[in-house]
Amino acid sequence: MANDVKTFVPMPDRAPPSNAVGAVAWIKQNLFNSVTSSITTLVFLYLIVMYVPPFIEWAIINANWTGTDRSVCDANKAGACWTFINVRLEQILFGLYFGSNPDQVWRPISMFVLFFGLLIPLMMDRTPRKDILGGLLLFVFPVVFYYIVHGGSFGIPVANTTQWGGFLLTFTLAFVGIVFALPIGILLALGRRSELPVIRALCVTYIEFWRGTPLITILFMASVMLPLFFPAGVEFDKVARDDRDHLVSICIHCRSGSWPGCPDHSERTI
Predict the structure, then answer these.
(1) Percent share of the chain, pLDDT over 90
(2) What per-residue confidence (pLDDT) applies to 73?
(3) Residue 246, exposed/middle/buried by CB under 10 A (0-12, 13-18, 19+)?
(4) What is the rounded CA–CA span in Å between residue 246 and residue 263?
(5) What is the pLDDT of residues 172-192, one digit of tens each?
(6) What confidence score (pLDDT) does residue 242 get?
(7) Which residue in 140, 148, 63, 137 sits closest to 98, CA to CA?
(8) pTM beyond cutoff 0.70
């Protein structure tokens, strides 16, 4: 009897139908799963076929990439004129000063290399002593950045901030805004939850004031109206003023959710 016992051996699973998996199934499920979806897909395919190849031909294949003036583009009007990018690349990336002084472009480039050289290791899990790297990035890098990019020391010529622009200016505003505005917004959010009535009332009043004021109004007042209240001849540093506006903007955004607060920088930067 023991020899008559049979062991059940399941057969291997059959492969799913070809129209249920893979690219065909994805296309059917996402692009042609209904009449409306099918019509929309066909319309977009028609637009892509009609307009994308001519655009690529105009923007890349027949484009003007070389030359030093517009005469090259006038001779070939069938393609885009990218000559100005080749000629004014330094100005687009770093502003008027570095565009007019190409030999000084090493200053912002070296700072970007230093910044990413400190930032990338912080994003890696196995990097040791991240506290030191973070301190260098937050406290030492801004000082080195100012003395190298702005100049005025160690024999480096001054690059006036009114002539900064492009990626350099965007990077400066973003770095200053993120480093300073976020911690202040967190402190105000914690102050709003304080058990001390005075601190809580001040934080709540301040937070609600900024929350109830439209952002465009704050930026307009800080950028355009505020300088009108000062005597003639008093000028605001544009980068410093933009930094102040950026701080206000980031603080207002970080007040959403768990961090509803932002400080007033309108009287601190000139």
Answers:
(1) 30
(2) 86
(3) buried
(4) 12
(5) 988 888 888 788 888 888 998
(6) 57
(7) 148
(8) no
d(CA 265, CA 248) in angstroms, rounded, equals 7
Report the C-alpha gap between 197 and 205 in whole angstroms: 12
185 class by beta-carbon count within 10 Å (0-12 exposed, 13-18 middle, 19+ buried): buried
User: Residue 267 pLDDT > 50, yes or no?
Assistant: no
* Contact call for residues 226 and 234 (beta carbons, < 8 A): no
**How confident is the prediction for the chain on average, in pLDDT?**
81
pLDDT at 266 over 80: no
Question: Using CA atoms, how far apart are residues 266 and 167, in angstroms rounded to an integer?
Answer: 25
HSE on the CB side for 190, CA within 13 Å?
Answer: 6
Taking the CA of residue 212 as centre, how many other CA atoms within 13 Å lie in the half-sphere pointing to its CB?
A: 6
State phi, psi for 170 to the nearest 5 degrees: -60, -45
Q: Is the dihedral of CA 127, 132, 134, 137 positive or negative?
A: negative
Q: State residue 28 phi and psi, 5-degree precision.
A: -65, -40
DSSP 230: S
Q: 61 or 217, which is more confident?
A: 61
Which string of b and e fits 57-92 if b means at least 16 CB within 10 Å?
eeeeeebbeebeeeeebeeeeebbbbbbeeeeebbe
Single-letter amino acid, residue 7: T
Distance of alpha carbon 237 from alpha carbon 220, whole angstroms = 16
Question: For residue 38, what are its two tokens?
Answer: 């099918």
Q: Tell me the Ramachandran region of residue 5: left when phi exceeds 0, alpha when psi lies from -120 to 50, beta otherwise.
A: beta
Query: To which residue do tokens 């950026």 refer?
Result: 246
| Contacts with 46 (C-beta within 8 Å, 6 or more apart), sequence order | none
